[in-house]
């Protein structure tokens, strides 16, 4: 009859504790994906690489060394461009922000982010920075003008109310739209105030995060807050 040493019991208890810890981490989503979770993506990458290699080999047999050289240059340039666009700094300059990045911005940083997102959507933007009350003015190719304000609430206090931008010569005032951006949620009184104004739209935190992820501003403005 085989005898078990005390070390085997210790080893088994360690394995049991490790399995329990792994189960807890997976239940919380902190352990990372398993191999079967990444297998489809891995198979796609392998298939794509094999396809590119086969295409280059076919080009070499058909037209000589020039085709593989051009193909390698194109692939390297495409990968480099993709990596650069994925970098946080380059991504933000293009007007794409994650929810955490938007949450960490101060008012001036939020105004800069909104200016970049407007440029991403095709607007011509003029940013007027200020420590406490920055503003963004924008114009699109259709001639519509947008005046963006940043306040914790939409309805301004009596001492901070600012007049609407003056109508431009030859353009009716209805082409100027006022947009109030807020990273939180608007109160019911803010929504009522914006509806009374008529040419004022509210962009709350949920819509702002969707805008930062790439959804066009025009689609967001058609929705009610």
UniProtKB/TrEMBL annotation:
Origin species: Streptomyces cupreus
Name by which UniProt lists this protein: Uncharacterized protein
Domain of life per record: Bacteria
Positions of transmembrane segments: 38-59, 65-83
Disordered, as annotated region: 154-175
Keywords on record: Membrane, Transmembrane, Transmembrane helix
């Amino acid at each position: 009859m085989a005898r078990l040493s005390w070390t085997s019991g210790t080893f088994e208890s360690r394995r049991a504790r490790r399995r329990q810890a792994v189960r807890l981490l997976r239940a919380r989503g902190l352990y990372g994906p398993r191999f079967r979770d990444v297998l489809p993506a891995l198979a796609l990458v392998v298939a794509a690489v094999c396809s590119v290699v086969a295409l280059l080999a076919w080009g070499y047999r058909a037209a000589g060394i020039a085709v593989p050289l051009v193909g390698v240059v194109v692939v390297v340039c495409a990968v480099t461009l993709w990596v650069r666009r994925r970098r946080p700094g380059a991504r933000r300059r293009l007007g794409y922000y994650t929810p955490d990045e938007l949450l960490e911005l101060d008012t001036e940083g939020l105004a800069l982010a909104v200016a970049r997102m407007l440029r991403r959507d095709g607007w011509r933007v003029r940013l007027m920075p200020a420590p406490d009350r920055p503003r963004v003015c924008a114009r699109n190719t259709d001639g519509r003008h947008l005046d963006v304000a940043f306040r914790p609430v939409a309805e301004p206090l009596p001492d901070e109310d600012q007049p609407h931008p003056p109508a431009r010569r030859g353009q009716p005032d209805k082409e100027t739209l006022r947009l109030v951006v807020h990273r939180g949620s608007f109160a019911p009184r803010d929504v009522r105030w914006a509806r009374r104004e008529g040419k004022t739209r509210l962009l709350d935190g949920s819509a702002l995060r969707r805008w930062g992820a790439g959804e066009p501003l025009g689609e967001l403005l058609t929705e009610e807050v």
